[in-house]
Write a structure and sequence with these properties.
about 180 residues, mainly alpha, 8 helices
Amino acid sequence: MKRFKSLLAKRGGAGPRQKGEEVLHLPVIVESAESSPAAAKEAANVIRKFLSKDNFQRAYVQYNAIMLVRILADNPGRSFTQNLDSKFVITTKELLRDGRDMSVQQILRETLDTFETQKAGDDTLKPLMTMWANEKAKYVKKGTAVSPQPSITTVRVPDKVSGTSTTKASYRTPL
């Protein structure tokens, strides 16, 4: 159990790591959560802490935590999702409402949308899905986008070889 906690902590970390370093711990984290209900519960609790307001300034921690939720919701699945308790739902709601990093907002909303469509039969996710449905209804009522919408910028780029210009579009999520 201690090893599992330290792996989760390393994944969230205190600062940005070298690219891909956190992926090294994923198999061990998933295997631990699969093999032990206590480890799955601990994973849910540690991930909730990573999603909390304490980490609003460390977006990479929150982003990684959301990715880990997505992975663990699939494998081990139900033995993990049954531990997403009311505290987890409240923390997720606070992140939806108050989180400022657009990449975290986008991955969180995409994750909740995915759960809504692909995990509709998982009753352990019902409290989380109820909260998400209520939050989406509030966004619609306010007339704001449920998910951050990318803006499209069109740029004419000269082609040095042929001497002509080509049109390229770049996509950017607004801040």
